[in-house]
User: Which sequence fits this backbone?
């Protein structure tokens, strides 16, 4: 079975405080976008779980896909095994949710190939066990994430075209970004307006990341100089994105950053209906 595993951007990310277990309380708006990995699943009769990838460091048992597969196999006493191949196109540790998207994809795909018949609540419980934003990727579209990001509420689709993603090739751990964040003064946290999304886009992590990584700071400045009407860090980074008024300017800007050796992708947000076409019918 061949599936696709979509990335996301955060249109909004406010950090409200700290939670037990070294987590942070967030208020975030996530949107699925049309950048994706491809993941193939093939049943085996040996009982073995094999995960391999186009990116060598993702091979083997440390991959979140493997950990979820092993958990489901043991939890539901599955005798069959599975061979999984991940064709990686989403940059790693980039604020685009690639690992979490892959994890959600594995939950959905293995439910099908192993015929587990999991309910939506059971899938969400597995997702919450392995990460904070995996639940979003079970649904896609546009959604509000609360608490540590695992409490997902669907929102009306926010459709935005001409989104240029630029990744400078550095990995930023979410832990380091959240560890350096300056929390808002009580009563001064930002709010998002879904009727005016571009004007109210915000990322509380961005100032700290820009200080720690001058390359991110210069990249965001350059996106504005290239004509972006709004530029922002996605999640904890290092991917930045700019929203452009037209495709031509976005394409010209992509060519500029590609010449510098950066990863680029001209993206658009996905509706929930589009997003949920991840799997063959």
Assistant:
């Amino acid at each position: 079975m061949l599936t696709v595993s979509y990335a996301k951007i955060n249109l909004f990310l406010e950090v409200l405080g700290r939670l037990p277990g070294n987590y942070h309380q967030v208020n975030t708006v996530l949107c699925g976008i049309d950048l994706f990995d491809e993941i193939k699943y093939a049943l085996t009769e040996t009982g073995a779980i094999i995960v391999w990838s186009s990116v060598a460091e993702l091979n083997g048992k440390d991959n979140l896909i493997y950990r979820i597969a092993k958990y489901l196999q043991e939890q539901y006493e599955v005798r069959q095994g599975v061979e999984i191949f991940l064709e990686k196109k989403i940059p790693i540790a980039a604020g685009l949710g690639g690992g979490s998207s892959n994890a959600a994809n594995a939950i959905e795909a293995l439910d099908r190939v192993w015929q587990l018949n999991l309910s939506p609540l059971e899938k969400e419980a597995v997702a919450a066990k392995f990460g904070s934003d995996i639940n979003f990727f079970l649904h896609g579209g546009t959604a509000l994430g609360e608490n540590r990001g695992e409490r997902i509420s669907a929102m009306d689709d926010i459709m935005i075209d001409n989104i240029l993603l630029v990744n400078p090739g550095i990995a930023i751990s979410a832990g380091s970004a959240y560890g350096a964040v300056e929390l808002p003064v009580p009563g001064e946290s930002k709010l998002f307006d879904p009727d005016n999304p571009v004007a109210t886009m915000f990322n509380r992590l961005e100032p700290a990341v820009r200080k720690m990584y001058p390359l991110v700071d210069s990249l965001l400045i350059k996106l504005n100089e290239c004509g972006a009407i709004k530029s922002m860090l996605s999640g904890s980074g290092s991917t930045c994105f700019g929203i452009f008024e037209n495709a031509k300017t976005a394409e010209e800007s992509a060519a500029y950053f590609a010449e510098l050796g950066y990863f680029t992708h001209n993206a658009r947000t996905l509706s929930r209906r589009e997003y949920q076409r991840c799997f063959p019918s």
Q: What stands out?
A: The CA atoms of residues 158 and 196 lie 10 Å apart.
